[in-house]
Specification:
The protein starts with a strand and ends with a helix. It folds into 2 domains: 58 residues, no CATH class; 33 residues, no CATH class. The mean pLDDT is 80. 50% of the residues lie in helices and 7% in strands. The chain contains 4 helices and 2 strands; from the N terminus they run ββαααα. β1 and β2 form a beta hairpin.
Length: 113
């Protein structure tokens, strides 16, 4: 559906166009759905910050370097450890010790102690 944004309001033009939309209208649709203005305003501030970071990052990327995804998790020693282990090779005690070790490592990765 073709739509335009006018004064932070979404206006549907009731015409269908081929191809993807030129932008996301998620915040406008959320407002139309009755999400409180305070929530959409906070989301808009967050989106602006993400876009600012993205634009700054694009200035530092070489053409061969891929753009970072907002949905890609950073490297994790905890996940690497989990992926490498064979649970069937662990005794009950080793498994319990590993759970505590991984919990502590996850807290460290998140900056919590």
């Amino acid at each position: 559906m073709e739509a335009v944004e006018h004064a932070e309001t979404l206006v549907f033009l009731h015409s269908v166009k081929d191809g993807p939309a030129n932008q996301s209208y998620g915040l406008q649709v959320a407002a139309l759905a009755g999400i409180p203005r305070s929530v959409t305003a906070e989301a808009r501030r967050y989106l602006t910050e993400l876009e600012r970071e993205r634009d700054a990052l694009r200035g530092h990327l070489s053409p061969q370097q891929p753009q970072l995804s907002l949905f890609t998790a950073p490297p994790s020693a905890v996940l690497d450890t989990l992926c490498a282990l064979d649970p069937e090779e662990l005794s009950s005690r080793e498994a319990l010790d590993l759970v505590f070790k991984l919990r502590d490592a996850a807290r460290t990765e998140r900056g919590r102690t």
